[in-house]
């Protein structure tokens, strides 16, 4: 690895961190990591990562959202509510459950 490649990779790694962790614009990030031209920054970023800075931000925000979102694969547990209603005589049959007011 040449010194230039090392510096480029360090700049892009820092840019990736800023894109993930801040809402700064691409121009601000480009300037902070040492690029004076936002278009050159985007070109180098894409060459190094395979994604444009915008695509990288969208992909990472989707990953974050997917990790942060609660999982409802099993659904909420309403068994206690129905058992209580049945024991109180409010719901007596399966038909009552399906026709119960919402």
Short description, anyone?
This protein is mostly helical and 102 residues long.
Could you describe the 3D structure shown?
By secondary structure, this protein is mainly α. The protein has a domain at 3-68: Arc Repressor Mutant, subunit A, CATH 1.10.10.60. The protein has six helices and no strands. It is elongated.
Give the topology, please.
Elements: H1 3-21, H2 26-32, H3 38-49, H4 53-68, H5 79-87, H6 94-98
Question: What's the CATH topology label of the domain at 3-68?
Answer: Arc Repressor Mutant, subunit A
Shape summary: elongated
**How many beta strands in the DSSP annotation?**
0
Order of helices and strands: HHHHHH
In the CATH hierarchy, what is the superfamily of the domain at 3-68?
Answer: Homeodomain-like
CATH class of the domain at 3-68: Mainly Alpha
Derived from helix and strand composition plus strand pairing, the structural class reads mainly alpha
CATH architecture of the domain at 3-68: Orthogonal Bundle
Rg of Cα set: 26 Å
Instruction: Compute the separation of the termini in Å.
Output: 66 Å
Mean pLDDT: 79
Percent of residues in β-strands: under 5%
Uncertain regions spanning at least 5 consecutive residues: none
Helix percentage: 55-70%
Largest sheet features: none
**Number of continuous helical runs:** 6
